[in-house]
Structures are given as C-alpha cells and as structure tokens.
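User: Show me sequence and structure for the first protein, then do the same for the second.

Assistant: Starting with the first protein.
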Amino acid sequence: GLPLSSLDRLLLWPGRAAEERSPPRTELKRVYIFGPHHSCTNALAREIPRFFSVSVENNDCQLGSPLWKHRIFTTYSLPSLEVEEDTFCICLVKDPAFWIQSLKRDPAGGTFYDILPIEGGASHDGEAPDGCGEEEEPEPAAAVRFVQADEDGYDEWAHYKHWEHSPAWATYPHFDVPGRADVEQMDAQDLDAVKRRVEKMGYAGFSVLDGRAYLKARRPWLHEGALGFCGADSSVVFHLYGPQELQVGDFVRLSSHAFTVREAFEAGGEVWDEQLSDMLGKVFRVLELTGPTIVGLPSPDGSQGGVWYFPVGLLSPVRFEAGELLRLDKEDPEVREFLSSREDPDRRLLKTLRVHGMPEPGTVAVSSPADREGTIFRFPASALHREMEVVEADDFVWVPRSAEAVGKALREAGRDWEEELEEVLGRVCLVLEVLEGGLLKVALPDKREWLIPTAVVCKVREGCYRPDWQPRFCARAREAAQLFGPVLFDGVRYADAVGVWEATVRSYFDAEVFPTGHTAVVRSEDVLFSFDQVIRALAHGGLPTLRSLPQVCMPLQAPAKARGHPMCTRSGLPELQGYYADPANRYAGLTDAMVKRLLQVEAAATLGYGPERVASWPEPTGAAEEEEPAFGGW
C-alpha cells in the first residue's frame, strides 16, 4: 500500500490534503509534471503557465531522458531525479481500470504506448496467466537496460547515459558489428560469465541483443572504429575486449558522433565546450596517458596546459589494417591539393579504397579496388575515414532528438530553424543528396524532405536498424489480455501492466524520490471534473500565481495533444466526461480474472478508485458547490 505519512501530498482526495499542505519556503520557478500515459499530463502542462508564474520544464522530454514524464523513478535510478529548491513536482495518477482501457484503445497502431507485451505472456482465452497479481519486483530485461548487482545494491547502467570502461573492456550502447564473425552465442543474463568465455577463448568481444550474447572472433578490423551505429532506440550493446594499448605519440581519431561525445562528457561531470565540435572525427597525436582509460589530446586553443582529456572509448587508434575499406576526406587540405595537382584526377580515389598497410606512423598506403593495376597512393591518416564515417546518398542516418543541437548546426550552416523540423527529430531518414555547406537532403518514408546538417547526424549501418524496432522477444500489441501478462516498460520487466501502474504510483509517494513539500499528487479525474479546485489547491500548495485567480478558473478548449497523436486519444472533454462518468466503461471487454487483478491493487482504494467510486468523480469530497466549467479537447 501507499505510505500514509505521505498522503498529505495528495490534492482534493480525500479532501483534507489541501488544507494541511505547507508551502515551500523558496519561491518556485519551475514545474516538473509526471504521470502515466493518458493521465492529462499534456493538458496540465499547457494550463499551468496560464495561471502560475512558473515554467513546465519536462513536457517535451523523450523516452530515455532523465526527466521523461512517464518514467518510473526509484531510489537507485541513474541518473536520479534531482529536484532543486525552486522546483515543484506535480504527479498525476489515474484509475487503473480506465488506464488499461486507455492503453488498448488504439489497436490499429499496434502499440500499448511504450509498454511492450512479452511473447507468450497471456493465454489464448484471454485469461490472466498464473501468478497474475502477485507482487513482483521489476527485473531488468537483458540487452535493454542492465541492472548489475554490487555490494551497495544496484547500479542501473542506462543506455542514454553511461559508458562503462575498464582496462580490459569498453561498452558501446547502440553499436554493433551485425552478422559478422559470430563464432558462438550464449545466454546474456550473466555478463561476467560471457566475458570470462571471451577472455578464455581470445575473442574480440560480443554484442548483446534480446537476451543473447553473440561472441565475435578476433579480427584485425574489430575495434571501436569498425562498430556501426544501430539507431538511438536500438537496445543492442557491444562489449569490446582488450585494452586500447595506446602509447604517447600514437595517432587516434575522436568519434565523429556529437551526441555520443557530449553524453560521455556530461556523464563524467564535464562541461561541453563548443570547440569540441571542431575536433569531432579528426585525428590527433596522443600527448599523455593518465591511466588505462583517459587519453590526453592537444587542446584546440592551448588551454589547460595544451591538453584536453578524453575517455578512451571515444577514440579509435589510427592503425589501419591491410584489407580495411576507407574513404578520402575530400575537404582535407592535402587531399584537395593532391587532386588539383593531377591533370586527370582519378575519380575512383573518391570512392572506397582498400588499405595495403601503414609504411610509417601517420601514413596509409591505399589503392582503389576498381583499379586492376593496383596503383598505390599514400595519404596522411588524418585524411582517411573508415567507411562507416562517410555519409552519401542512399545511406540511412539518425537525426538526434535535440532541437537545440540541430538548430545550432543549422545556424552554423547559414540556415534557419523551421517548426516542421520537429517531425524529423529522433528519427531515421534516407539521404537523398549530399549538398554543399555541410547539409544533407533527407526524407522520411512518407516522402517529405528536409535539410539537415551533416555534423549532427549518425550514419546507420545497414542490417542493424529496423524502423519498427522492438525487442524480438516482445510481441505486437493486439488485445487487452496481453496487458495482464509480462510486459516491458522503459527497459524493465514487470509481471503485468498493472504492475507498471503500481510502481508508478508507489514512486510518487516515496519521499526519498519525490521530496516532501515539493510534490503534489493529483488524480486525473479531478483535473477532468474539478479543474478550478485543482488550480486553487496548487496555488495553496505554493505555486506563485500570475495574478489573482478568477472566480472560476476555466480551461482552454482546444485539444492539448498534438496532431501526431492518434485521433482516438484526442477526444473533446465533454466526450471524456461522459465516458469516464459511465461505470459500464470501466471494465468493458475485460474478463473476470482481469477485473479481479485490478481489484487487488491496494493503492487504488487509497486513492479513491474503489469498486463504486466512478459516481463520486464529478463531485469529489470537499468540492465547491459551483457550476462545472465547460471543458474541451483534452
């Protein structure tokens, strides 16, 4: 059940809470809104700035963000939820039965909104599987998010944040060498056992996907630079074995992936410097080694004694092996001078080249596979890139989710940000044309086209990325029965979708996660039926108002959700009021076993979601005797 000591953060229900709240001592400036899908988070995020002089900071955060509004926080979450003194959290909850109904109302989309049913989770007759309703601690799903036991409990290695490096192992989330050099495979539940096998057999490493580890033979080309980006939503993780064995004076290339370098710096508590953008993808001589995982490279402006330090996982040794495939950097000054000096430039040099060796440090001997005579040319290592780092027409690229990063790169390329570009953020696109000025013309499957800066995209290796990607052990959403079997949510396995609801609500009443005095829990039913009282309760709880509140706080009429949401989720509020006030809709289409599972949720009764509570929602305990305001579009 819910800790009774924390019920004072619950607004309106059971009616006494708003009167007992103690406002924060510090003036509030920002708000975080959290809640499960379909709990009025979009609507409330739009309404808060209308009445209060605060900004809503996290409504646009995507899956994987530390502030994703649907995320379930725990005391061991990494990164943890940081709530500053000037920040207030509003956590929305919803009747679990109606929440299940919301999840299954878009069957044509084949989705339960980030909740993935695990294959074989429910029986064919729609009955809940054995054990349904038993308390089960969330367990990690292998290859999606790793939770590794240690002496202190759990360290959650989230794919969007942590790059784990040791003297012998380096971990690369979202990267793989697909289908190449697999020598064996084994279960990935025990990563230490997999690593021991790799070390014993002398393999190069292994990739993990869908709970299986695919072990790779040791090949000269199998190093960081040979790994391919598989898409930011891919759960594949590559574990590369063997220290880089760098020495002072070696040449290394810094990763060309801006988002990867930025995340690595932020994970280590370092500040991103815009001068790093000019270093991406370039070759540098190693100046210093501070232990097995930190490498000193020349700083671009001579600061910090002329040395900047980088995690070894961001660097790939420029030790091209015979047989590797490379591309020339056409913008490199030495390459341009070489090509301009030839009366009849060999265009084959601008295509794929094969390495013959490195006759001396920093110099690479290459030839064109199309040249039958095998003419060998020598180029500086800094002018050559592995083929995965070169983007051309017909390639697939991933555009980062950050509008700020894309907008900045556009401005540097002399282009303006356009609102339509939001549709391409975080998606994989087809490259139609490589333009001058560092721009790509890209398209989505619906044929719409955009101009995107080359500097911010990541090339996607063919065979790694599936546009409709989901873990292979998960099934397509088809029927409500799947929600009452094992599911995967945000990389964590739960006994069923009701377990997701329980974990979500439990976190909102955990004072170690959501601090007392800076948190309010609001039922979405109260937002729908008692909007005015919710606004007044939030003001009483400490949110500074823009001006004196009107006699009745009226909500906006237009839909709160953008047009990208399914139409079935964008009903007007009069329709929603009628729907949620009808008890017949609560358990419609659910079997007796499913209803029994929902009635077992102890926290539901505490929140006023008992068997006969539907009729109470329009007039909750403590409601003012005022005419209901007109709602719409929620």
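Switching to the second protein now.
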Amino acid sequence: MKKLLHPGNIVLFGFGGMVLFMCYLVYQCTQNPSIMVSKNYYEQELKYQDLIDAKSNTVKYSDSMTMAKTEGKVILRIPLSLNNKLTGASVKLYNRADDTKDRTIDLKKNEEGLYALNTSDWGKGNYQLKLSIHAGEKQYYKEFNY
C-alpha cells in the first residue's frame, strides 16, 4: 500500500491521466466536422478587393439604399440614379447557422427602384442580405441584417 502512494507513482498516474484526457480530446475533435463559412472560401478571398471597391462606391448612396421588413416580404429600395443605370442586381441570403438555407435571388429591373422579396419560404433564422448591384461600369455592394 505504501508503494502505491509513492510520489513517483502519483506523478506517473497523473501523467497517464493527462495522456488519456488528451486522447479523448483528439477523438472528440475528429468527430466534429470542420465547417467553413462558405464552400469556396479561398476563391472569395481572392476577389475581396473587388468587394472593398464596391463598398466604397456605395458610400454616397448608403442612406438612400434601404431595406424594409413587412409581413412575408422584404422591400429593397435602390436609388433612382443607380436604378436607371442598372445592368444587373442580385441578393445573396446568407444564414450564419445553416448553409443549406443560403440562396441567391436575381433582381429584375423595374422603373421605381423598389424590389420585393417573398420571405415565406426562407425558413426561420437570422439572415444577412448581401445586395450586389452592377450599374454602368461600377459595382455596388451593401449588407443588411434580417
């Protein structure tokens, strides 16, 4: 009994327990999938300078480019000066918690600059709406929280 509680044995048992605990942690890490924010993260990182330029182009329109929530709809307002030059626009719905709920909606040009999106089939959760506009030779980009 005395040899079992020898200080050297206590250190050995402590070290063994630590190794077993580390093995358990490694096992738990292998059981959790590593989920990246998006599937093509590295491609998006290379195009990030274009996004920075689009955000800087949007600064002068930031007050007039708005989003309004209504029952079952989201209404996006694009300033008429941009809407007249609009060559393409899209909204990417980004759900931080579940990438299966992500989707992209292309906007069709209209004269008023108001675009209504139906939210009834989105599913519950917090979304980030990423509005991307191509007008003339420039790109514009703004994010909204939904």
